[in-house]
Amino acid sequence: MPELPEVETIRYNLSHDSANSKSLIGKTVQNAVIIWTRSLIEPPAHEFELRIIGQIINEIGRRGKYLVIRLTTDFLIFHLGMSGDLIVEASTAPIAKHHRLFLEFPGNHRLAFNDPRKFGRVWLVKNQLDILASLGPEPLDPNFTTDDFHKIIVSHQRQLKPLLMDQKVLAGLGNIYTDEALHLAHLHPLRHSHQLTRDESGRLWKSIRLVLEEGILHNGSSIDWVFRGGDFQNKFRVYQRTGEPCPDCNTPVIKITVGQRGTHYCPVCQPL
To answer: Is the pTM of this model over 0.85?
Structure first.
């Protein structure tokens, strides 16, 4: 699933000119086509297609794992699900097999939402808080301090892995970056959050920020066909490295299941 670094990479690419595409900022939606109506949560497809035409893209932002496009009068919000991606391509290009909707702009180009597994979701709303209000703090927010994080962590009596992946607690972390941050902080994924000392929670706060920043620096992680272009998978400490040596102590990495999610850790560096 695309996590914070992958979504941030997409946000940046859609907002800036590159060798492969032009920024969408300032572009006017000329046409809209819904191919897979179940991707669209609201409004109904016919209303979406009529309402979005003529609106200008003023800003492309991100909140947790959500991509948030501020239009003239509405917010267009994407959650990429397990396999979603947003692709700028020529309007004359063949419609790819897994395209679920697309927006066309003047100058022969379009923004396509491609989602092979069909778990991605799209909203067109007047108020972004209708969708995003329940999200927890942004881990990279400069105003989100170690004290803030410690208060949140110790206020719950939950295992660290599922707690950190709860978007209502902290926005943006998924399976990959949670495993990486816990290893960097030398904390076991099954540790109970309320037991963490202030030093341990501070170490985890720092580790979360470090792995997310490094993920963004490397344009996210490309695993199979789920996300394109990143190379952070070459920097993984433990994720998907079962049986390989821990980068800190050379002990083989172990994989267990936590909350129905594959979880990777070092039994020596991350004792329970």
So the answer is: yes
